[in-house]
Design brief:
about 270 residues, alpha/beta, Chloramphenicol Acetyltransferase, seven-stranded mixed beta sheet, globular
Length: about 270
Amino acid sequence: MDRMRFISPPVAEADRVPAPAPASRHPDWQPCSWLLFHISQGQLDALKRQASLDTSGWISTYDALTAFLWRVLSRNRAQIYRPDLSAPAIFLESINMRRRLDPPLSMRYQGNVLSGGLSMLHPRPLTLGQVISQETPLAVLATFIREITQSVTPQSVETTLAAMAPVSDKSALNVRLDSVPPMSLAVTDWRDANMCVVDFGFGRPVVARQIADTVVENMMMIYPRRSGEAEEKGGLEVVLPFETDHVGLLLADEEMGKVATFRGFEVRRG
């Protein structure tokens, strides 16, 4: 629980600066709900094979699944928001830094140890049109996501901490995801939480859930794997945000229907 590693040395009063003004919710977002989908292990393996074609780099299940869902969500949301398809596609992800730091942290280190991967910092950003187009191989999207993840290093964490050091009120640096415009996607992967393998003495959890009555319009969550249910073994559950009045678009998507099974609403907002 020692946080000293992530606390910058004190900054002289004369060198302190105020935090930038906080951004508000982007006005163009329509009300969204969170939808729960299940993807079987067979479909995950198929996506990984597809995303690994014509690329020399390693592609993870996370890269392949996220690339596929990024394309599906963008394709269907484009019918709602009618964006400029030549505009850069905005992709954000939270990255667990426990294993990535040098030396690494214990996986039992309490609290979040996250850093953000941002498409805005990628030297070769993709356009919305490229993300949506079937002419862009899934491997291109998956490799793009892998490069964003790999760009976050112990050195980039140190640079971020140094940049934040002069800010007087660091709590004011919190950025709300929905300040980013529609068509953006932020991904958080909870698999390492691994709560379903913990034995509390009186039993083990079967499933982990986010208990909330609010919806972050552009945040996708990958849940920890279930336990104790044969049909779920090896598969993943994913929560996707989508505009409540247009949920039928996503559920009618033929490609989505082949890969994922809709399990219902996690949170419904209208």
